[in-house]
Amino acid sequence: MMEDTGPVVAFWILAAITVGSALMVVAVRNLVHAVVYLILSFVGIGGLYITLSADFVAVTQILIYAGAISVLLLFAIVLTPRGSRDNAESFLRLPAVLVALLVGITLGYVALDTDWSIAGRGGFEETASEIGELLLDKYVLPFEIASVLLLVAMMGAIVIVRPEGTMEPVDPSTRLRTGFAQDGEAEA
Amino acid sequence: MRLDAAWYDLRDIGNAVGALLEQIREWGAPDWVPYVTSSVIAIVGILLWTVLSVLAFIWIERRVVGLMQNRIGPNRVGPAGLLQPVADALKLLMKEAITTRNADKTLFWLAPIVVFIPTMVVFAVIPFGEKMVLADLNVGVLFLIAIGSINTIAVFMAGWSSNNKYALLGAMRTIAMLISYEIIQVLVLLGAVLFVGSMRLGDIVAWQDDYGVWLLFLQPLGVMGYVIAGAVEMNRSPMDIAEAESEIVAGYHTEYGGIKFGFFYQAEYLAGFAIAAVIVSLYMGGWTLWGLEEWVPGWLIFLAKMYGVFFIYIWSRGTLPRLRVDQLMAFAWKFLLPLALLNVLVVGGEVLLWQEQDLSSGEALPLFGAVNFGLAVALVIGWALALGHRRPEKVAHRAILTQELGAIFYGDIAPRP
Fold this sequence. Notes:
heterodimer; A: mainly alpha; Four Helix Bundle (Hemerythrin (Met), subunit A); globular; B: mainly alpha; 15 helices
């Protein structure tokens, strides 16, 4: 595969986009700009998956990270007081730089030290059905645990959000008015 | 197939392009030349076609909605107002591109571009004909949803960077709306994918051709869900709360003018075409029409179906009132989501039955179609009743508000209970 220049060029461009925008996420002062750079970084990672012929993972990366997680972050910024202004001074700046450096050194060391084996096969033909079969066959238990965990988290969020004392089931006659209020319903 | 797919076989323009690429290869060009050539041809073709379609449909939509609302519509520029879209486009191009003083300048400029890209990219996976598809990805359906979800970001960028209350409100509404209906979209498309067993759009069209049945008949609930979710995705009334003129001026593009607004406008139309194209490919047999594609170019059949579906959206825009934000959300989460989940369960069961029982497609598909159609009607009516929505009364009433305000009526009006 490596004799093709296309994937190599694509890899370097995508890597530059991913790493560059990831750096900009921490560098820019404006929080919304940071999120936009983060999205660009996610898209770059999606592109890297495509060069690895992992099409399903790439599309899922775009869908989940660029489409959903980033929206979550945007919501968080908009709902945070002062969040829409800028990335304020923080007294944790020094520890943060230290931790980031340590993580970077560790990752770099592992990457350089590992004896990477080069895959001796070509690209995958189709990954979606393989992933589906593995998830429902070999890895069904982790898959189910993850689903249950997400469901519990979602229910927990709903419980936290609801105001005090509204957890008892809603009376059907009042439920009528929550959706499409209809003609003459006010009297009902 | 008498023409044997020669280059002059215009039933599929892919033939001519394929012959051209073959010729280029014979001239001894390196591998990437035909590849790039085919991409450029496809991209230029799609771009030209979309621009022309958008111009045509601006006129058609304005005239048709005018007819529906008992007015004339544009009829001054050119014969029957035909040149009105061109005049509008020129006007948008020549207007000053204003950026408001307190806007976030970078994002303000970036948003119209970002909103435009995904709506164009979607057309890459749409099969206009058997060989007329730019990239028939094997994760095509998922790709459509993923690209559609990027729109959210662009709209948020526009709304937030405008530094305007109404723009931000419109953006927040869009996000809430798109996120909710994306789930519906994924679940209803899962039904079609389960039946076919592939996410490649070409395979889905081929499956419908093989069995001689549109997925529309096997998936009535799915089509209903996707048509509604599509209206949300393309931001058209009755789901256009993101830019509801009477509530929040123009939503996220309040501050945009000139060609930057033009981008939003065009992107909205393109999203409409894309949704219509997806509905046609997934549910209405794509470029096939039970053998007619042997005689009529498949891409003409495809375009005819697509414009037909898009016309339904124009129609609903002209006739249905806009929903409120809470109504739209309640509709997604309380009404469509349970139905879509049930749809997935039913389709899964049917596919399992089909495989396990070794049914022939002649027995299985009519049975599934009848069951799904009955189920769709029963579920929609039953679930609506269970949620407490009664059938609308046949008698016309005056609006409640005018009566409560003490308006005086003349003539025979039934007193309110």
